[in-house]
Write a structure and sequence with these properties.
Radius of gyration of chain B: 21 Å
Number of domains of chain A: 1
Oligomer: heterodimer
Distance between the termini of chain A: 56 Å
Order of helices and strands of chain A: HHH
Number of strands of chain B: 2
Strand content of chain A: under 5%
Order of helices and strands of chain B: HHEEHHHHHHHHHHHHHHHHHH
Number of strands of chain A: 0
Structural class of chain A: mainly alpha
Distance between the termini of chain B: 23 Å
Helix content of chain A: 55-70%
Largest sheet of chain B: 2 strands, antiparallel
Largest interface: A-B, 38 and 44 residues
Strand content of chain B: under 5%
Largest sheet of chain A: none
Shape of chain B: globular
Radius of gyration of chain A: 20 Å
């Protein structure tokens, strides 16, 4: 399972970076979204993938034994997803406003901040 | 004890909430903006005093024991940073009263301002690496909105570049935190540092260190990752530029210093030499970029990049003296840089342009403003007896001690170019006669604009005069950073 996920994560990173390098600002958003999902999956995978053993201590024991699913990475991803959601909502609005104001969706035409007056 | 640790987070939070509740009531929000920032400065001062007397302070949030819960942690370095955030916050809050137009105030400038300060202070005070990520995001989201608040064309274009690069850095940071957790099973920085020593896979640890270096490097705007900064920092109103220049990139540097003094000290020969090389290149490219500019705010933005190089030089040399010099330099550059932006904003108010070619005659019409510019400008270049001289002296001294002559030469050369570039602003904006035939009407500058700039300028003199005691403080901070 780890191997499959490793390829999925790699694919997501590659696709995300490819989209970021396109000129359209819409593809820029997609690229950023893919990149943050790739990071989330990476954190998830690094918490070790364990199936069907929740981190619950049995009534007759005082510590966990054997392999168990680590809840911490999942808590981290939950936080990261919420943050990512808010940030993406903002980015989409920003891109829409930029499109309306500048009148183009081509990043190469958005150069007025780089030029001397 | 713990109260001083939590107050720098609580005061901006409450100010933001109160300002939000008073949505649309501008007079109340304006008062709240200044009061909240003053409260933050007071709390920061008390925190610094308490850390100075009693040593490092920690607070376990929610009373969860140390490696499991989130730890708030303040040593002298973080306390100094919180005080600096309070100073910049107060200066910019007062300056905003005049500089920020009613429309921007109406659309939540003050709540965002305080949320930004909360994020910055949170990043300075947390002892948990994932919590650091969260505070970074709090700070980023507030800064995104502040950057584009007003919706002018340049703001939106600059905003897209700023947002994209910072989100990429965040994704990288998150991935690095995940890998750190996978390798060590720890998120608490002290715990992770302890466990990293026992991992015993130097290649993996160094690769992880490089991920943190790139992620924080983008946020700190180091070579070759700084291009978003001069493309975006000059677009919002100057009060916001001053706030960003004083605090945001410095949070990136703070995180770099934190991570590379506590977590990644296994292979200093590789990682810290690399940081030293980056420091030299950052200084040189930043100042060369600045020399070519004729727009005041863009010129100052390139200087931000250049000064980041000096801070990294202190980290790269990695001796107690060098780190103390970095802490000292941080205090100096935060104040001097913000003061320069504030003065630039006053010049704009008087002449309605940031273009050096069109500015002129300001010395004749406003000699006081000229002095206000000269103090931080000469301090940035490193002339005695101002703060920058002692900061650079300490860095150069540390470089000579370790025999890193190349970086010392770069630092001195860049100082000269900084002086040149500051003198360019002086000549063009202040000294040369005004372009127009009839002298411009001598407009009065409101005290809410010049008082914050004057306060920061006076502080750069005071730091220079009290360099001895302050260096003792920086030295103690450096020893705490290195765990001595």
């Amino acid at each position: 399972m780890e191997t499959v996920l490793a390829f999925v994560i790699g694919g997501l990173y590659a696709a995300g970076l490819y989209m970021l390098m396109r000129r359209s600002i819409v593809k820029l958003i997609i690229g950023l979204a893919l990149l943050s999902q790739a990071a989330n999956l990476l954190v998830f995978t690094l918490g070790r993938l364990v199936r069907g053993s929740p981190p619950l201590i049995p009534t007759d024991a005082s510590t966990l034994t054997g392999s168990f699913a680590d809840p911490v990475p999942q808590a981290l991803i939950l936080t990261a997803i919420v943050i990512g959601f808010g940030v993406q909502a903002f980015t989409i609005v920003l891109v829409k406003r930029a499109y309306q104001t500048v009148g183009t969706d081509d990043l190469d035409d958005m150069r007025s901040t780089d030029l001397n007056p | 004890m713990g109260i001083w640790l939590i107050l720098p987070l609580l005061i901006p939070f409450l100010s933001a909430v109160l300002a939000l509740l008073a949505w649309g009531r501008r007079p109340f929000q304006r008062v709240m903006g200044v009061l909240g920032a003053a409260g933050l400065l007071g709390a920061g001062g008390m925190l610094l005093g308490s850390v100075w007397r009693d040593g490092v302070q920690t607070l376990q949030v929610g009373n969860w024991p140390a490696p499991f819960g989130i730890t708030l942690y303040a040593d002298l370095f973080s306390a100094v940073m919180v005080v600096l955030a309070g100073l910049i916050g107060l200066a910019v809050a007062v300056y905003s009263l005049e500089n920020i137009d009613p429309d921007r105030e109406q659309f939540g400038y003050y709540p965002l301002f305080h949320i930004l300060l909360m994020g910055v202070c949170g990043a300075f005070l947390t002892g948990d690496i994932f919590n650091l990520y969260v505070w970074f995001e709090v700070m980023l989201i507030a800064s995104f909105v502040l950057m584009v608040l007003g919706g002018e064309r340049t703001q939106l274009e600059g905003g897209i570049k700023y947002v994209t690069l910072n989100l990429m850095a965040s994704a990288l940071f998150l991935a690095a935190v995940g890998i750190l957790y996978g390798v060590t099973g720890a998120l608490n920085m002290a715990d992770a540092a302890y466990r990293l020593k026992e991992v015993g896979r130097p290649g993996l640890v160094t690769a992880l260190a490089m991920m943190f270096l790139v992620a924080f490097g983008i946020k700190a705007a180091v070579f070759p990752l700084f291009f978003w900064l001069p493309a975006s920092y000059h677009t919002p109103p100057v009060a916001i530029s001053a706030l960003f220049s004083g605090l945001l990139t410095k949070v990136g540097v703070y995180a770099l210093i934190r991570v590379f003094t506590r977590l990644f000290v296994q292979d200093v020969g590789y990682t810290h030499t690399l940081i030293l090389v980056i420091a030299g290149l950052t200084m040189v490219t930043g100042v060369l970029g600045a020399v070519a500019q004729t727009e005041v705010r863009r010129l100052l933005s390139f200087h931000i990049v250049s000064q980041i190089g000096y801070l990294l030089m202190g980290l790269g040399l990695f001796t107690p003296t060098a780190l103390a010099a970095a802490v000292f330099f941080m205090a100096h550059v935060v104040l001097a840089k913000a003061a320069l932006f504030l003065v630039g904003g006053i010049a704009y108010r008087l002449r309605e342009t940031y273009d050096l070619k069109k500015l002129g005659g300001l010395y004749r019409s406003h000699p006081g403003l000229a002095v206000l510019f000269l103090l931080p400008a000469l301090s940035l270049a490193g002339l005695p007896p101002l703060s920058g001289f002692f900061a650079k002296l300490a860095l150069v001294w540390a470089g000579l001690e370790t025999g890193q002559f190349a970086i010392v030469a770069a630092a001195l050369g860049v100082s000269l170019l900084t002086l040149f570039s500051m003198m360019k602003i002086w000549n063009e904006a202040f000294w040369k006669p005004s372009g127009e035939d009839d002298p411009l009407p001598a407009r009065k500058v409101s005290p809410t604009l010049w008082l914050p700039a004057a306060g920061l300028a006076v502080l750069t003199i005071l730091i220079g005069l009290a360099a001895g005691p302050l260096f003792v403080l920086s030295m103690r901070a450096a020893e705490q950073l290195l765990g001595m």
